[in-house]
Design a protein that fits this description.
This protein is mainly alpha-helical. It folds into three domains: 2-60, Arc Repressor Mutant, subunit A (Orthogonal Bundle); 63-100, no CATH class; 107-156, no CATH class. The chain has nine helices and no strands. It has helices at 2-24, 29-38, 44-57, 62-73, 79-88, 93-100, 107-118, 125-137, 142-156. 25% of the residues are buried.
């Protein structure tokens, strides 16, 4: 009898800890699992029971999390960078693919980031090559970065 009470108490503590963690900001299931396993006071069965309970209540939904993440991050990040961030958070590849399909063309965002980068910088070849590396490093396609930097190179001339 006492074992059942202690087990239920441990599961409730784990559930409450997980719920508090999710209330700070939305998380993927893998992020939550990593957090709970780092806690010394939680054991495997109570963690899995808490995660299952949270999933049933609708507090954990990786598809909804990915949609929300993409909507928030697509303003300043390329789809490739968003996909990488979601993969590190443990979201399934199919869910990521579905969530990022709605983003569309990234060339306007790349132009905006290039303009922001080049603001108050000298228009020389060194800065333009740094701009190219900056855009590729942000996850934009090679061709888009090349086309944008070609416009700045034409401003400089030969």
């Amino acid at each position: 009898m006492l074992d059942k009470v202690l087990k239920a108490s441990g599961e409730d503590d784990t559930f409450n800890r997980a719920l508090c963690y999710l209330m700070r900001c939305p998380r993927s299931e893998v992020e939550l699992r990593r957090y709970l396993f780092r806690r010394k006071d939680a054991n495997g069965p109570s963690i899995y029971a808490a995660i299952e309970r949270l999933r049933e209540l609708g507090y954990i939904n990786d598809a909804a999390y990915a949609q929300m993440f993409v909507a928030a991050k697509s303003v300043n990040n390329s789809t490739r960078a968003i996909e990488l961030k979601l993969r590190t958070r443990g979201v399934d590849k199919e869910i990521i693919k579905t969530a990022t399909e709605a983003v569309g063309d990234q060339s306007e965002l790349a132009k905006h980031i290039a303009e922001k980068y080049m603001r108050n910088k000298p228009r020389d070849r060194t800065t333009v090559s740094k701009l190219f590396r900056h855009l590729v490093g942000k996850g934009f396609e090679y061709d888009d970065a090349q086309q944008i930097t070609r416009g700045y190179t034409n401003e400089i001339g030969d």
